[in-house]
């Protein structure tokens, strides 16, 4: 179990990163949510209805991975999705879910982000998958997202948005930002027609070089 000093530090980081995500325009009003792992069996997650302006360290809700919580603030309605990712992926230290514009644009077509640019590979493969639509806050959505992140660090959520995992809050937020950039560039590229995608040999070379350089 995390000690009080660790929990206090994570609360500060969560509030800071939540506001930063808002400043990037990745989440507006009270959309999206952030969380970080707390010890072996719990997490801190942004509360339902939080905005960048209202989010403070004390706003974060401590929730066990099986859904127990206490206090006046309710956890985000998407706590199940975050909990499922922590349960299935030991490497996940933080999770970021956004409704960012270009991720939503691509996810609304229920299609993966294809490997049109080598930086798509930064999420672990030659595309970023898109899981089928499921109602927010449900076990179905949680299972879909957690399964999609088995071989990737991010996925699109059909007719919804995106979610990603990282070693810590900063890396997860960076991944969410990068995916929004990649989706924006893909939407721009589509204005000239369907862009080319990297072939298997090019992906092999990319992953070899990226791993050798410590990028992955």
Give an overview in words:
- The structure is a single chain.
- With 216 residues, the protein is α+β, with helices and mostly antiparallel strands.
- It has one domain: 3-Layer(aba) Sandwich (L-fuculose-1-phosphate Aldolase), CATH 3.40.225.10.
- Helices cover 38% and strands 14% of the residues.
- The protein contains 6 helices and 7 strands.
- A 7-stranded mixed beta sheet has the order 3-2-1-4-7-6-5, sandwiched between helices.
- Strand 5, helix 4 and strand 6 form a beta-alpha-beta unit.
- The radius of gyration is 17 Å and the shape is globular.
The CATH topology: L-fuculose-1-phosphate Aldolase
If you compute it from the alpha carbons, what radius of gyration comes out, rounded to the nearest whole angstrom?
17 Å
- Helix-strand sequence: HEEEHEHEHEEHH
Helical percentage: 25-40%
Count, helices: 6
Number of strands: 7
Structural class: alpha+beta
Summarize the structure.
The chain is of the alpha+beta class and 216 residues long.
């Amino acid at each position: 179990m995390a000690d009080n000093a660790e929990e206090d530090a994570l609360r500060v980081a969560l509030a800071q990163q939540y506001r930063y995500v808002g400043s990037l325009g990745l989440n507006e009003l009270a959309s999206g949510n952030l969380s970080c792992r707390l010890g072996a069996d719990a997490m801190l997650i942004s509360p339902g209805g939080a905005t960048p302006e209202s989010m403070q360290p004390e706003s974060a809700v401590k929730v066990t991975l099986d859904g127990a919580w206490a206090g006046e603030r309710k956890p985000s309605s998407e706590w199940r999705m975050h909990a499922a990712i922590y349960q299935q992926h030991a490497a996940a230290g933080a999770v970021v879910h956004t409704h960012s514009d270009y991720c939503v644009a691509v996810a609304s077509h229920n299609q993966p982000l294809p490997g049109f640019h080598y930086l798509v590979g930064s999420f672990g493969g030659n595309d970023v998958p898109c899981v089928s639509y499921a109602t927010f806050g449900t076990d179905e959505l949680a299972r879909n997202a957690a399964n999609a992140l088995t071989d990737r660090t991010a996925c699109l959520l059909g007719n919804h948005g995106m979610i990603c995992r990282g070693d810590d809050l900063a890396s997860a937020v960076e991944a969410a930002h990068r995916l929004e950039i990649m989706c924006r560039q893909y939407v721009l590229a589509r204005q000239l027609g369907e862009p080319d995608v990297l072939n298997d040999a090019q992906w092999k070379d990319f992953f070899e070089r990226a791993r050798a350089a410590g990028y992955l």
